[in-house]
């Protein structure tokens, strides 16, 4: 499902908490969903990322499984606590995204698994 309510900063509602307002209709649907996929086509707009953070927090509270990819992973490198310890969340990073995520949680190159590939 691609949700049509997601907005970028150029179309921000004039409320004290636009991200929470924009996330509200999506959050109200969480009880009807088996899982939520977030990331592909999302973009890195600050309002979009803040709205997604609200959805991730609510999905976690309701124990809704998440699959996070692409620009949702961009959000997580800034805010890894959104999913840290959440066992119902699958991250699907490519090599570059994995490196950024590892760095964001304090893992150095010497702590990453050896893939057997020449660097």
Briefly characterize the structure.
The chain is built from four helices and three strands, in the order αβαβαβα.
Q: Kindly estimate the percentage of residues that lie in beta strands according to DSSP.
A: 5-15%
| Count of helical stretches | 4
Terminal CA distance reads: 38 Å
Overall average residue pLDDT: 87
Strand runs, count: 3
Structural overview:
The chain is mostly helical and 119 residues long. Helices cover 39% and strands 8% of the residues. The chain has helices at 18-29, 46-61, 71-78, 95-104; strands at 36-38, 66-68, 89-91. Strands 1-2-3 form a three-stranded parallel β-sheet. Strand 2, helix 3 and strand 3 (89-91) form a beta-alpha-beta unit. Helix 1 packs across helix 2 and helix 3 (71-78) packs parallel to helix 4.
Question: Main traits of this protein?
Answer:
mainly alpha, 119 residues, 8% strand, 3-stranded parallel beta sheet, 4 helices
């Amino acid at each position: 499902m691609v949700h049509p309510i997601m907005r970028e900063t150029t179309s921000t509602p004039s409320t004290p908490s636009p991200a929470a307002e924009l996330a509200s209709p999506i959050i109200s649907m969480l009880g009807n969903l088996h899982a939520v996929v977030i990331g592909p086509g999302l973009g890195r707009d600050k309002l979009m990322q803040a709205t997604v953070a609200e959805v991730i927090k609510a999905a976690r509270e309701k124990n809704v499984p998440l699959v996070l990819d692409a620009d949702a992973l961009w959000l997580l490198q800034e805010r890894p606590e959104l999913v840290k310890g959440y066992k119902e969340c699958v991250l699907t990073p490519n090599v570059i995204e994995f490196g950024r995520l590892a760095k964001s949680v304090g893992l150095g190159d010497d702590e990453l698994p050896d893939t057997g590939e020449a660097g």
